[in-house]
Amino acid sequence: MPTTNRPRRVTIDDVARAARVSRQTVSRAINDKSEIDPETRRRVLQVAQEMGYRPSRFARGMVRQDVTTLGLIIADVLNPFFPEVVDGVLEAADGRGWQVVVYATGSERAKELAVAEAVPKHVDACVGFILHEEAIRTIASSGIPFAVLDRRGRDLAVAGVDIDFRDGIRQGLDHLTERGHRRIAMIDDRAHALSGAPHARRAAYLAYARDHGLPVGERWIQPADNSTEGGAAAMDALLAEHPDVTAVFAYNDLIAIGAMRQAMKRGREVPGDCAFLGFDGLALGELVDPMLTTLYIDKRRFGKLAVEQVATLMTEPGEVMDAVIRPELVVRRST
Fold this sequence. Notes:
The chain has helices at residues 12-19, 23-30, 38-51, 57-64, 81-94, 109-122, 133-141, 165-178, 190-195, 200-211, 228-241, 253-265, 299-315; strands spanning 69-74, 99-104, 125-128, 146-149, 159-163, 184-189, 221-224, 247-250, 275-280, 293-296, 322-325, 328-330. It is α/β, with parallel strands linked by helices. The chain folds into 3 domains: 12-55, 434 Repressor (Amino-terminal Domain), CATH 1.10.260.40; 63-163 and 299-327, 3-Layer(aba) Sandwich (Rossmann fold); 165-296, Rossmann fold (3-Layer(aba) Sandwich), CATH 3.40.50. Helix 1 crosses helix 2 (23-30) and helix 1 crosses helix 3.
């Protein structure tokens, strides 16, 4: 069973501190550069060996021109959100001559922890969509350059790309309230809710409802499996408990589409009886009838920004950087 209590990977900075030299001197000793005193080289190499220091493949590549390998961790290869993220990562990596290895976890805790244990042994840097903080901390403590896709406001000393959920949800709910909706329900992702990760979408929805005096709250949030089928089942449960609902904000477009189709099967007119708002901006939203109103995320840019962050970390270790993607409201016929 995976564990996260293994020793942190020894870094070049650890060796430099122990040997009382600069990190540049350690690099020269490891790479057998001529501009270093032989006795200093011998002492540095001895310290490195005693500490169990293993130079990263990237560090060796600076001398031997090895190919840099980037690990990309995603939740689900079948979820249409991720192919565009992957495309952005691949484009940014290809532009740097890197190769990319993709790992899928299904957002399951055991798989995330197993991947987190394995990744630092096989790649030079990593970007990942990871729910469980234990897995994030495992990779971060390994010493490889690492950036988290969608940190969701976690208080972690790790570089990452965030999504401004609060602003996006404000845009979407403003749109619904301007059309007269007040009984606005939310369909949430069950796996996310159970993971212990911060609930940015749920928190933004509840804060908006409170600030605008909407007659909704926690009991208007329905959990769902992350699929169209999950959205349909959640819509049935939502209608059973709140038949007076007039609008639904969903965790993502997949859930929104499943809920909308189920509402129509139940005889609800869209948007006349019930409006639907998704999140992510999948191309799939343009193919359903009515087309889905959504909060669009530039998913390719999302992936590119993460690669830019780890590229910076390779040359400036220890930097903690942030980047933010702002969703944009795309109004279509479902509202």
